Amino acid sequence: LANATETSVEKAPVAQGQDVQDTHPRFLITIAEPSLERLALWELSERLGASVKRAQCRIFFNSTAPVERFAGLKSAEKICAVVLHAQASDLHALAAVCESGGEAGSKAAAEWVVDTCIWDPAVALWRRFQGLPAEPEAPLTFKVTCRRKGARFSHISSQGVAVALASSLAARHGWRAKVRSPDLEVRVLFGDSDLLVDLPLLFQASVRIGGGEIVEAGL
């Protein structure tokens, strides 16, 4: 694997500086540290046959590989289903609706996220990765994790957005909010240049490195 990583990582079809929303990527991979990036790109290309798109420091990709292939990735900290990646004009629209700040601004931001996100494909993907039937047998339990990075949205409360978003999702989708041990986590990250909403599909608690080589077995 080490030799293959050195010679094959450049084969990953990465496009720099392109608008990721143009191709609606289904997945996001996160890695524990930058030194794993080359391995991550190699695994996405060689193990998943993925097409990869870079947006800032994030690695988005599409793949039709079966779930068990994903579970064998060594480099990944998390694999997530992308619900929304908003940039440029979309982000300007969000900033406009929540410019009042405070509780009203947080609620407006949450409503914008609920209305703008395309939830069904991402939730269907999450159900497939969890081995659940396509048609739910009971309402999903969920929690919302919201974080802000940078100054652009510093006038709204992460906690306020999370609470308002949870209330809206429960009302619209019939899901049940549950902070501890929910079925599903909805992650929202506000940044100066983009907004990301995703659903974690697979994760490993840590990626250990010993002697310069990966020593984890995968997700």
Explain briefly what this protein structure is:
Helix content is 34%, strand content 27%.
Content-based structural category: alpha/beta
Strand content: 25-35%
Rounded mean pLDDT is 83
Number of helices: 7
Number of strands: 11
Rg over CA atoms, rounded to whole Å, is 18 Å
Topology pattern, helix = H, strand = E: HEEHEEHEHHHEHEEEEE
Oligomer: single chain
Question: Based on CA inertia axes, which overall geometry fits?
Answer: globular
Report the helical percentage.
Answer: 25-40%
Spatially, the strands of the biggest sheet line up as 1-3-4-2-5-9-8-6-7
Distance between the termini: 17 Å
- Main sheet makeup: 9 strands, mixed
Question: Poorly predicted ranges (pLDDT <50, ≥5 residues)?
Answer: 1-22, 209-218
